[in-house]
Amino acid sequence: MIIPWSDRYSMGVEEIDNDHKQLFQIAGKLIQTVNQNIDDSSMRFSLLREGMAYLKDYFDVHAVREEAYMRQIAFEGYFQHKRLHDEFRDIQLVKYQTILQQGQCTKDEILEFVGGGIGWLFEHVTTADMAIVGKGQLSQPQADRIDHETLQNEINGLFSSTLGLNIRARVQSDDYRGEPFGEAVYQQLTYTRGAEQVTVMAGIEKRFLLQVVRRIYGAEINEADALILSTFEIFGANFWRTLAGRFISDSTGMKYQESHFLTQQQLAQQFTKHRPTLSVLFSSDQGSFFVSSDDKQIFK
Length: 300
Description:
The chain is an alpha+beta fold. The chain has 2 domains: 7-137, Four Helix Bundle (Hemerythrin (Met), subunit A) (Up-down Bundle), CATH 1.20.120; 143-293, CheC-like (Chemotaxis protein chec, 3-Layer(aba) Sandwich).
């Protein structure tokens, strides 16, 4: 399976677009190899080792090229964008380098490696990279207030520019406190800004989540839920941070640390513990979802 390339992902900078196309092709080959060899422990480890070596070398070349282009055009968001590249190296690649040092790789670990890498790549290309050339939602003026109309415009704009989905999201509640809203997947994400820790919680109906993943892969995928969830885990972590950044006066220091999934009971417990300053439940044509944050800077 090849991750389908779309002209929507094109920046109009030939060298960088060619890099992105090749990264999409690499991702597709990794999925195909995983599907064929998921039960072979030696092949899983070999795939992780070769995938890591190729991805690290290629990503380093691409990131250097992209960062040079940003400096050349004096892109205002250069330092924030470079931080995203550094974060990928320092967190995602280091995590799997540690697994390599152990000498073996489980099914879940290889699925997480492939799915997480694809989730990061897709969100990054369709948001941060598009902003370099004045495309996508991040090229629009930053919101100067938080109200229902602004929230709806921002979330609809992000889903449209990132996934090409016209979801027509509407604010259902701006005081969501963890109540069930159908069969859903819940996620807790941790970021830091200097010494401050920021917690974001998000949840999405499973039928909506499957639409998101189909948009990324361009087709039904045959592998187990582990690949779907791994893709969404990192895609969601960066997507919700991108959304939050639209309402934070200084989001440049926001660094992703980790994320994990929650049960409905754990979600309710975390709401009691973190007491979010902003918590919004949306309905949409694709399904319901929510996002909340205890970030004190989210109100300007």
